[in-house]
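Quick one, tokens below:
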């Protein structure tokens, strides 16, 4: 029974971390869209001959892309496999003691 509760708790904690990651990404994306839209409008109204809003759009866009990559999977499989590998090594080490 204790093992089931422990696994249930671990599953809940993992899901909770995932929700926080998603919430963080979508919050960042929402801020990006709102701020860049504001900057684009401001730029077009004040100095349409030079589109300076593209610079912050590209800079922050690189950050958004990196955040998306970390949130939605690049490296996630490796991370999970490594965690499982280290946990298995620890179990084996504890059995030999």
């Amino acid at each position: 029974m204790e093992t089931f509760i422990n696994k249930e708790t671990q599953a809940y904690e993992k899901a909770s971390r995932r929700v926080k990651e998603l919430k963080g990404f979508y919050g960042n994306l929402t801020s990006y869209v709102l701020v860049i839209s504001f900057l684009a409008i401001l730029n077009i109204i004040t100095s349409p001959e030079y589109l300076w809003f593209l610079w912050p759009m590209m800079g922050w866009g690189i950050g958004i892309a990196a955040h998306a990559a970390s949130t939605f999977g690049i490296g996630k499989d490796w991370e999970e496999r490594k965690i499982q590998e280290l946990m298995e090594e620890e179990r084996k080490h504890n059995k030999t003691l």
